[in-house]
């Protein structure tokens, strides 16, 4: 989701949370899940797992079984500042898209 990544290539906290939680498999549902998550977290910055599950209803994923997606949304909520659209956490925690792709490839091999 190009519009969420920062100019320096760093991923948005929600994108990074999806990568780190293993919530990205084939990638088909990923853009919709991530955009829906960002919009949801702006309105519900500290959601429960039940609220998270309800927020992603209607976005179909045939790969993850939703457990990793719910975990990613919860982690994204911990890192996400709903009042600041771009700078959401200290720079030392940022990873580039290339690094995220590398991590996703490694995870898929295991």
Uncertain segments: 84-92
Order of helices and strands: HHHHH
Number of strands: 0
Strand content: under 5%
Characterize the biggest β-sheet: none
Gross morphology: globular
Mean pLDDT: 81
Helix content: 40-55%
Counting DSSP H or I runs of 4 or more residues, the number of helices is 5
**Cα-atom radius of gyration:** 13 Å
* Helical/strand content category: mainly alpha
Structure notes:
- This protein has 110 residues and is mainly alpha-helical.
- The protein has 5 helices and no strands.
- α1 runs antiparallel to α4.
- It is globular and about 30 Å long.
- The two termini are 25 Å apart.
- About 8% of the residues have low confidence.
Structure described in brief:
With 110 residues, this protein is an all-alpha fold. 50% of the residues lie in helices and 0% in strands.
